Amino acid sequence: MHDSTGRALALLNLLQSHRHWPAPELAERLGVTVRTVRRDVGRLRGLGYRIGSTAGVHGGYRLEAGASLPPLLLSDEEAVTIAIGLRLVAAGRLHRGAEFALSVLAKLEQVLPARLRRRVGALTPALHGVPGDGGVSSAVLTDLALACRDRERVRLAYQPAGGARQERRVEPHSLVPVGGDWYLGCWDLARGDWRTFRVDRLAAVEPLRVGFAPRTLPPERVDELIAVVRTWGPRTLDAVAVVDMPVERFTAALGGWARGATADGPERTRWPVGGSSARDIAYGLSWLPEGTPYRVELADADREALRESLQRMLAALDR
Prior knowledge:
SH3 type barrels, five-stranded antiparallel beta sheet, 3 domains, DNA-binding transcription factor activity, Arc Repressor Mutant, subunit A, four-stranded antiparallel beta sheet, alpha+beta, elongated
């Protein structure tokens, strides 16, 4: 591979990783002059990539959508996610790789031609069910992914459970998938503190085209914020499964579903289970490792409701 070809590919990779690059910064990253960057941009344009440019002190380059979809440079993780994702989608489920899948989606949305974007917009409701069914909007998710990547402020239209719609101006930090839900970890400008929002409760996301300096959000703070948000939902029944298994083995067996598990001595684990109905508790208990003894602690009235729910299931099996 000639140096110029390798350099052009490196330039393309940079353009795909950020929405806008100042020309001097590109030159510094590639170890060349601004003039050489300009020449390599021309080479990429000749290959079909639409690259916009701005002049002036803050001038630079950005990758734009063109009339056709050009080849994309994908990381190894993203390429693997595409291959696995297609197989799992065909089987009707996708449990892992969500972060990399969102990274691929952000790259595609950045360069997708308008005619293909319209087709995606028309097909998405048919693939995800009836509009307004409470699922996450792919457009909202993509806008947030781009804002996190490019460190750009956004305005959120947030609908809390049981409350009036709120408008928040935030600096997005990261998107985290937990238990089938997406959460946005961000710095709330009005409150001057970290906040977490469930993405399926965002009615709209408006990019403000204003950058911000990155802040450090400790990973443990993300878990803490998400745990708080998850307690806001309707939860009228609470139970604890006391499992005859050390907490280390229990956590390894259930992975992300083991959230909230604590040690009850060296050989037992206490795992909180709850929800809005006895069926939710039954569903949670179904995740316990097969063959492992356990007992359930819950209020007498809730215990009776759970017993009735399980008896209905057993009766249905005998019909």
